[in-house]
From TrEMBL:
Residues 1-24 form the signal peptide. GO terms for molecular function: carboxylesterase activity. The keyword Signal applies. The keyword Metal-binding does not apply. Keywords: Hydrolase, Signal. This is Esterase EstD. It comes from Acidithiobacillus thiooxidans ATCC 19377. Its EC number is 3.1.1.1.
Length: 570
């Protein structure tokens, strides 16, 4: 049997990263170069094909020392998804070492079963995960998907995990830790590095692995480094010798602004939830007004970051930009963001989000440095919907409102237009676009009619429309239901204070027509301003990268900042 040595641990992490990255790429042929100590060299060629319900990856690896072939391996990996079940099959052979092997696994929620054939022997594998630590990342109650999500989402944090090595028939308690992302420039190519450190608690030595990702295509894996061994995309020289450092632009931005701003940490306890907030104020000079910022949907924190790929600190940038122009800004973690993660009855709804915003607005009004100043309510994306709800129902009484990329129609229509437009940009045919609209309608109707606090979709529908799994988060059905029922056009009608609507013309999530729809619903008080080339996350984006994640470190669109400040001053 294989021993769980450091190299096999690194290979395990590498295979997980490879399989995840392969599914994110459109190219079906990869070539890697292996660089090792002394004269050890190698080549890795992977060819992946899209199957009806999964992927097939063929890999050929040759490792040489001089002219001597140390190993030649061939492996075939197949994955198949059937609703909540994943079938994984891998087989291969080596000219030296362990010989041929064949591994078959079935991962169904918390059950792992299958068999391993090696050296003429067969071993049945059958495991049930009886308990899961809250720190284990899971998607759809699936541990394998959760591990992949963890490798992408764990930035500068550590967590205890249970790691399974099927070739060794072994469970190990481990600490997985990732360092901070670093930005590099290789020629004209931006590269992100992320160090992952795995420490086994059963006497194992720490294994430090560094991964390289191509940005703006964040999921494109370029290479992996462990000690003096590296695996690089063909044509990319060893990392340490060729890539020059490039400072993240936001580092110098926050450093320079910090001399002129002051941050005050605040807390709010609401219905058993402890929420954190930060008030950013000018350190010198007069304060012209105070702004409460309500953030967007999902796991987006008070800085504007989330583990799904947003790392530009867009809300912190807003606070610093406005503070240097004489405006205080309070931003906060929503009730669903750590440390307010223990959701207690009543379950979250749009009403509770609005009540929380009202409580934060009251805290802001009571700050001695902000007493009797004009109070402004600002909402981004979902936060704009919360702001409209709070003002419409009299929970907050600001002097002005600013809506950044705010939906202008019920969520069903916004989601349908978002997905169909992105499908058109990808070149999908009309039948696929029609099916997308149909699936959104089915999902929306199911959410609105469902009872309880959690919704479930059958495996057949999830296979056709994986996005629906996002709405299956335990305890979040009341929130989703209230947001699907809300109509921003009705909410903005009757609001009798100045409202600035900011809409980027390259937003592919809340499409530009949303801003016009809001203005038409309240033409007397609403002012609509389109920002050229601005995306949903308030940064400038080129037309060619409109569907691709941009490299971290982007500054906010300067035209948007100037426009909002000018509006507040006038």
């Amino acid at each position: 049997m294989l021993k769980p040595t450091a190299s096999w641990i690194a290979l395990f992490i590498f295979c997980v990263l490879i399989s995840t990255a392969a599914q994110a790429e459109t190219s079906n042929h990869w070539s890697f170069q292996l660089h090792g100590p002394d004269s050890v060299r190698g080549a890795e060629v992977l060819v992946q094909m899209r199957l009806i319900s999964g992927w097939e990856i063929n890999a050929n690896t040759t490792i040489k020392q001089g002219l001597l072939i140390l190993a030649h391996l061939h492996s075939n990996i197949r994955t198949r998804h059937d609703g909540s079940t994943i079938y994984y099959a891998s087989e291969g052979s080596a000219e030296h070492g362990q010989g041929a092997y064949r591994l078959q696994l079935k991962v169904e929620r918390r059950n792992i079963s299958g068999k391993l054939q090696m050296n003429g022997q067969t071993k049945e594998l059958n495991y049930h995960i009886t308990s899961i630590s809250p720190k284990v990342y899971m998607i759809g109650d699936n541990l394998v998907n959760g591990l992949q999500a963890m490798l992408y989402g764990l930035k500068g944090k550590s967590t205890h995990e249970t790691v399974f090595f099927p070739l060794k028939d072994l469970w190990l308690d481990a600490v997985l830790q990732s360092g901070k992302q670093q930005q590099w420039l290789y020629g004209k190519q931006h590269i992100t590095t992320l160090a992952v450190r795995l420490t086994l608690n059963k006497g194992g030595k720490p294994v430090a692995v560094e991964t390289l990702w191509c940005t703006p295509h964040r999921h494109k894996l370029l290479g992996l480094i462990q000690g003096n061994v590296s695996i690089m995309r063909a044509g990319l020289a060893p990392f340490a010798q060729k890539i020059d450092t490039q400072e993240n632009p936001l580092t110098s931005f926050f450093f320079s602004r910090s001399r002129n701003v002051k941050s005050i940490h605040l807390h709010l306890t609401s219905m058993g939830r402890d929420m954190a907030g930060v008030l950013t104020i000018p350190r010198f000079g007069p304060i012209y007004g105070a702004i409460l910022l309500i953030g967007g949907s999902g796991p987006t924190n008070m800085d504007g970051n989330n583990p799904l790929g947003l790392h530009d600190y867009i809300y912190k940038q807003l606070a610093y930009d406005f503070a240097t122009n004489g405006y205080a800004m309070l931003r906060y973690n929503k009730a669903s963001i750590s440390p307010a993660v223990e959701i207690k009855p009543p379950a979250l709804t749009l009403q509770i989000y609005a009540e929380d915003a009202a409580a934060w607005f009251s805290i802001m009004e009571k700050q001695s440095s902000l007493h009797q100043l004009p109070m402004v309510l600002m909402g981004h994306s979902e936060g704009g919907l919360v702001a409209l709800y709070a003002v419409h129902y009299g929970l907050i009484d600001p002097q002005k409102m600013v809506l950044l990329e705010c939906p202008g129609a019920p969520l069903r229509k916004v989601l349908s237009s978002q997905m169909t437009y992105q499908a058109m940009l990808r070149g999908e045919n009309t039948s696929i676009i029609h099916q997308i609209n149909k699936n959104v309608a089915i999902m929306a109707n199911h959410i609105q009619k469902a009872k309880g606090d959690t919704i479930h979709f059958n495996n057949e529908f999830l296979g056709q429309f994986p996005l629906a799994e996002i709405f299956m988060q335990p305890g979040f059905l009341p929130l989703f239901k209230s947001e699907f029922l809300a109509n921003p056009e009705n909410l903005i009608t009757g609001i009798n204070i100045p409202i600035l609507i900011i809409q980027g013309d390259r937003d592919v999530q809340v499409l530009p027509w949303n801003g016009k729809r809001l203005q038409d619903a309240n033409p007397e008080y609403a002012t609509l301003l389109y920002i050229s080339k601005m995306s949903h996350d308030l940064t400038t984006v080129s037309s060619s990268d409109i569907l691709h994640p941009a490299p971290p470190g982007r500054r906010l669109d300067p035209a948007m900042i100037k426009s909002v400040i000018s509006y507040l001053e006038n």
